[in-house]
Specification:
With 79 residues, this protein is mainly α. The chain contains five helices and no strands. The radius of gyration is 13 Å and the shape is globular.
Length: 79
């Protein structure tokens, strides 16, 4: 189960990167998600049962900059 690399694995990886580099923004990040997205959608996402449309609702509910930087760093292998 934990060895499978799914879209949720990737989402988790990016979130952990963002929190590791910007931990002080964690509470505002989660507040933004819960303010802008229906709780049922969040629970489906956390339960790894969401569809792409629901994923996009959550992804677009937060500032994209730290996540884009994380993706770039991962692809370029920058620390």
């Amino acid at each position: 189960m934990f060895n499978k690399r799914t879209k949720y694995w990737f989402y988790d990886l990016l979130l952990l990167d963002v929190l590791a580099n910007n931990n002080e923004k964690g509470s505002s990040l989660f507040a933004s998600i819960f303010k802008k997205v229906n709780v049922k959608t969040i629970l489906k996402f956390l339960g790894e049962e969401s569809n792409l449309r629901e994923d996009l609702k959550i992804i677009t509910s937060v500032s994209p900059k730290p996540f884009i930087l994380s993706i770039v760093k991962r692809f370029l292998r920058i620390k």
